[in-house]
Amino acid sequence: MSADPRVAVVVITHQRRDELLAALERLVALPEQPHVVVVDNGSTDGTADAVRDRFPQVELIASPKNLGAVGRNLGVARLDTPYVAFCDDDTWWEPGSLRAAADTLDAHPGLAVVTARILVEPGGTEDPIVAELRDSPVRGAAWLPGPALGSFLAGASVLRRAAFEEVGGFSERLWLGGEEELMAGDLAAGGWELCHLPALTIHHQASTARDPHKRRADGIRNTLWTTWLRRPFRPALRRTVHLLRTVPRDRVTARGLAQALRGMPWVLRERRVLPPHAEARFAALEAAQRSSSARKYVS
C-alpha cells in the first residue's frame, strides 16, 4: 500500500519518553507513512534527544515549557496536509485508519472531525466512552457517515486542518483537560459537523506517568469556563449546579473551583453564546453527561 500524503500526525508529550518512543515505533510503521510532528512540552527526561536519535524522520518541536493542548497548535502550524490526526504519547493509530479517515473527509466536505473507536491495551477491550460515542443523542446532518457528536476526543480524532485553523486551534486559556468542548462548540457554530466513525481505530495504553489530581482540577475548571463562555444562562446554571452536586468534596475540587472563579472576569468578558443550532448539540448531551460512567470527575 502506498503512502497517503493527505494526513499527518501531531503528537504532544510531556515526561513520557519510553511511552512516546513505543508509540512512534508504531506510527512510523503505518502503511500511510504519515508525516509525524512531535511537540515535546518541556520534558526534562531526555525525550527530545531520544526522538532525534531514534526517529530522525520525525519532525520535533522542543518547547522549553509545557504548553498543554496548545502544543498541538504548534504542530498543526508546521503542516500543509488537508487533514491532521492527533495522537497522545500513549496512543497509536491502527494501520489503515488514517487512510479511511482521509477518504471520509474527502467525501464529506462539511465534516470537520471524525473520532475513532478506542481500544484499551493490553487486551484490546473497548473504552467505555465508545458506547457513548456510538449511541450519541446529538442530531446532525442526514449525510453524516456516523453518529453526530457534540464534542470529540482530541487524542482519538482526525480533523480537517482548515476547520481547525478557522476556529483558532485550542484555547491557550484552557491549557489541557476537556479543551475539545470549546472547539467543538465553535466548529458547530461555524456550520461544521463532527461524527464518530467506528471504522477508525486507535489503541490506548494508559500511561502511569500522570497527575490525576491536577487533571481533575483542570477538568472542573475548564468545564465551568467552557460552560459560561458558550452556553445560554439557564443551561449554564443547570450544568454548574449539577457539577457542584456531584464532584467530590475535597481539596482537589476546591482547587479547580478556585481556579474557575479567578478566571470568571475574562470568561464573562469574552462570553459569546452559541447560536441555537450549536447549543442544541450541547443540550442533547446533558442527560448522557449526567449518567456517564466514563466522564466522572474523580481521581
UniProtKB/TrEMBL annotation:
A Pfam family annotated for this UniProt entry: Glycos_transf_2
Protein's UniProt keywords contain Glycosyltransferase: yes
A GO MF term: glycosyltransferase activity
This protein's pathway: Cell wall biogenesis; cell wall polysaccharide biosynthesis
Domain Glycosyltransferase 2-like, chain residue ranges per copy: 9-167
Record key words, sorted: Glycosyltransferase, Transferase
Assigned protein family: Belongs to the glycosyltransferase 2 family.
PANTHER family: GALACTOFURANOSYLTRANSFERASE GLFT2 (PTHR43179:SF12), RHAMNOSYLTRANSFERASE WBBL (PTHR43179)
Record protein name field: GT2 family glycosyltransferase
Organism encoding this protein: Blastococcus xanthinilyticus
